[in-house]
Amino acid sequence: MTSEIKKQTRFKKLSKGLTVGSVMAGSTFLHGPPVLALGLTKLFKQSSKVDETNIQITNSWLKVNNWLIDHVLPELQWDISIDPELSLSLQGRYLMTCNHQSWVDTTVNQYFGLSRMPLTRFFTKWELIFIPFVGQAFKILGFPMMKRHSKAQIAKNPELKHRDLDEARRACELLLSQPFTLLNYLEGTRFTAEKHAQQQSPYQNLLKPKAGGLALALNILGNKIDALVDMTIVYPDGVPDYQNFWLGDTSKIMVNLRKIELPEWILAGSYEDDPEYRQRFQQWIDQIWKEKDQLITEMKAKHMV
């Protein structure tokens, strides 16, 4: 009997894997070429109509992914909590921070946000531009793409630092022509126990935050956004990788959204040029991260009850 159950389980996972893989591949090849074709027209002329159409196509692609979650993973339970003070709209402009544990985080964000918030972009590595369809779509859809330079490279050529900042500034400014959600994973990398130990992180559930990206986004967009939103994701059964998630190994996902109030001083300084402001900004982020760390502990405890 046990052997038979194992066979049935393997068959179910194989069926899910084939279904998800086939539908995702088909959806990507259906939606990808139109986005790329329309994106090429922007080489000659910027057009808000083209941008709107590309967002509609992308949202259609996301709807397919969300349909898969609802129908291929019907046993997955969602525990979503939203701050009453946080009013979300598809026409809003939001900056968002989030803890980062797995590539599944982005899928969770898309599942949650599709019907509640504008299309989510996030800071990403320039190297992703070489991934077929996906990388080019990131660029066309206005994802800020950063070229990461080592301290040694910047010391040798200081202009690299300013070039990267200027590119990020241009990408952020282009978002202002439309509703947007700009996500920043402050930890800069996915959380693992090894990274946590190497950093000697003062937080129980988080890596140390990197404040520079958020400071830049606030400097450019801060007085034009509707809210700074902090999303917290908890996987009570353990952090899944992308494959295991789609094979149905995740039984529950907990999501919390809260509004972060912006102090009056936050938009009145320069993170790059003012050491005192930079220290104050980092202390502010540290306090947000302490609260987030405690929230994760409470969410995990809630699951255990």
Question: Could you explain how this protein is built, in words?
Answer:
There is one protein chain. It contains ten helices and eight strands. The radius of gyration is 20 Å and the shape is globular. The chain has 305 residues and is of the alpha/beta class. The mean pLDDT is 87. The strands form two sheets. It has a six-stranded mixed β-sheet, sandwiched between helices. The chain has a two-stranded parallel sheet with strand order 4-5.
Question: Quick summary of this structure?
Answer:
The protein has 10 helices and 8 strands. The model has no long low-confidence stretch (mean pLDDT 87).
- Compute the number of helices: 10
Helix proportion: 40-55%
Q: Characterize the quaternary organization of these chains.
A: single chain
Q: Which radius of gyration do the C-alpha atoms yield?
A: 20 Å
Sheet with the most strands, sense and barrel status: 6 strands, mixed
Structural class: alpha/beta
Runs in which pLDDT lies below 50 for 5 or more consecutive residues are: none
